[in-house]
Amino acid sequence: MKPFLLTLLIASTVSAALFLLGASAQSIEDLRAQQTHLEDDLTSVRAKIEALGKQQASPPKPYYIAAFGLYDVDSAGGVEPSIHLVNPNKSSPIKYANIKMQLFDRVGKPASSSICEGSTAWVKMTGPIAFSDDVRKGRWDPVWYNHSGWCIKLIELDIEFMDGKHRRFTSKTLPSVLKEGLKNGCPPNGPEFQE
Question: Helix, strand or coil for residue 29?
């Protein structure tokens, strides 16, 4: 094809495109600016679609501990812990959950009880807690007596299921069964109940 005819063909194609876009009076720079804006919008939409796809593709991780912390420290120094437990196991209800925890003071040191030795204690939740149940909230009367009790750290979780199976989580594996966003330990800003 001769260069003159090729130029004429390109010019007529561009004129037709401008007409179709309703931009016959616009400059090429204006069209390029519109194109850039549309490409940015398209990139943004693609990113949103990809993010939604990832959310739908990865279900939330299963967890046993939905929340934990100190429910109260009474006027006598009685420290009352609380734990919210769920059962992500479809195959069997939880029969018992034994939880070992440790009490800490405001500076992050273990806080021993004034009526018994040690800063650690075991508490027990009794089921059955089925898969479909909502959160089971456990709260215990004073487990320790120490006016400086500030927060708790979970040390161990031992779960017995109705079918006789057991699951045990230690300090190293406990983070894997905490609800997303929970930290096992004392928050730097105080003893807020972690939910």
Answer: helix
Rounded CA separation 110/148 (Å):
10
For residue 175 the two structure tokens come to 């983070």
Q: Which of 129, 133, 192, 184 is nearest to 159 (CA)?
A: 129
Place of tokens 């807690």: 129
pLDDT tens digits, 98-139: 999 999 988 889 998 888 778 999 999 999 999 876 889 999
CA distances, 53 to each of 48, 62, 66, 79 (Å): 9, 20, 26, 45
pTM: 0.66
Chain segment 1-37, per-residue pLDDT in tens = 455 444 444 545 555 555 555 544 467 787 777 778 7
* Radius of gyration, CA atoms only, the chain: 31
Question: For residues 155 and 171, is the Cβ–Cβ distance under 8 A?
Answer: yes
**Peptide bond just before 191 cis, omega within 30 deg:** no
